[in-house]
Design a protein that fits this description.
Layout: H1 3-18, H2 22-34, H3 36-58, H4 62-81
Helix pairs in contact: 1-3, 2-3
């Protein structure tokens, strides 16, 4: 798949997440209809987005990491006092 086509697909995919305008929809529809490879690239961009979202959901947030450190420290202090 051509890098330019995939980059354009990723650009359209990202834009349509925040912009639901008729103008963008018309532009996207025209691009998708211009070449069957565009639709494939758009589907791949969407799949990559979904995979990336899944990876982010599995990774702990900085707040979760801080809470774990706090709990580990409190647990260690409790053991030291026994």
């Amino acid at each position: 798949m051509e890098e330019g086509r995939l980059a354009r697909a990723a650009h359209f995919f990202a834009r349509q997440l925040d912009d639901r305008s008729a103008e963008l929809r018309a532009e996207l529809d025209a691009w998708l209809g211009a070449d069957p490879r565009n639709a494939i690239a758009f589907a791949r961009a969407g799949a990559a987005w979904e995979r990336a979202a899944g990876v982010g959901a599995m990774a702990p947030s900085p707040v979760q990491d801080e809470n774990r450190r706090d709990m580990a420290g409190a647990s260690q202090q409790g053991q030291d006092q026994q």
